[in-house]
Amino acid sequence: MGSTAVEFKNPATSTLLEVVKARRTYYGLKAESPISDDAIESIVQDSVLHVPSSFNTQTSRVVLLLKEEHQKVWDIAIGAMEGLVAAGAVPKEMFENHTKPKLEAFRAAYGTVLFFVDYESLAPIKEKFAIYADKFDPFALESNAMSQYLVWLALEAEGFGANLQHYSPLIDDQVTKTWNLPASWKLDAQLVFGVPTSGAGEKTFAPIEDRFKVFGK
User: Fold this and answer.
1) Which residues pair with 111 in a beta bridge?
2) How many whole angstroms separate alpha carbon 91 and alpha carbon 131?
3) N or C, where is the chain less crowded by C-beta within 10 Å?
4) Is 203 exposed, middle or buried (0-12, 13-18, 19+ CB in 10 A)?
5) Domains in the chain: how many in total?
6) The domain spanning residue 76 has which CATH number?
7) Which Pfam families does the entry mention (predicted)?
8) Closest Cα partner for 71 from 36, 105, 42, 120?
9) Is the pTM above the cut of 0.90?
């Protein structure tokens, strides 16, 4: 199943797909920005407003942390891991040689986008459509994932590098307290971004023939 050159009706389609193809994971980041903070805010805000959700439930909640506020979330993560070391749950050598340098690298970036889901807001729709009640939580998570991907694409298109992290539930309580967030907001992911200081790792693909099929062509 080889790829062939195609012509799209809208040139923006090609541009969008090029952005998708160019997206990578960058771990080496520095605390600089190629665009204004207002532009970053606009990217994140538009994702909150325009990413679709099941039954238009709009369950995603997003917090943008920049500069010193961004550093706080990784100080929280470092502190939480130090607590696990002190409790004997994590080997000190592993923390010092691997975990801590990784967390400090995240801290050295420019910003973090925190992605939450407000599952409690789904109570009315679950009651109204009881037969689908067990589906709405996964649907909400899918919508949140779309927001994560959109923000990642847009930030990278503007010259950032980024990586997506998942430190829940380790940091959840302290994050809620630090930024006085509603208890119903459940943290799902943290997107770290900054100007890349090194290239991305090699990107490999499983055979597309095992992952994609076409019928009716």
Assistant:
1) 66, 193
2) 46
3) C
4) exposed
5) 1
6) 3.40.109.10
7) Nitroreductase (PF00881)
8) 105
9) yes
Provide the 10 A C-beta neighbour count for residue 143. Answer: 18
CB contact at 8 A, 101 and 148: no
Residue with token string 């589906």:
135
Backbone angles phi, psi at 113, to 5 degrees: -105, 120
Residue 65 lies in domain:
25-197
Beta bridge partners of 115: 62, 189
What contacts 24+ positions apart, CB below 8 Å, involve 210-214?
Answer: 212/1
**pLDDT tens digits for range 158-200:** 999 999 999 999 999 999 999 999 999 999 999 999 999 998 9
Answer whether 113's CB lies under 8 Å from 135's CB.
Answer: no
Match 């770290």 to its residue by tokens.
Answer: 192
15 within some domain:
no
DSSP assignment, residue 120?
A: G
| Residue 73 contacts residue 81 (beta carbons within 8 Å) | no
Residue 20 lies in a domain: no
Please give the Cα distance from 153 to 151 (Å, whole number).
5
- pLDDT (0 to 100) of residue 1: 47
Instruction: Give the C-alpha separation, 148 to 192, whole Å.
Output: 11
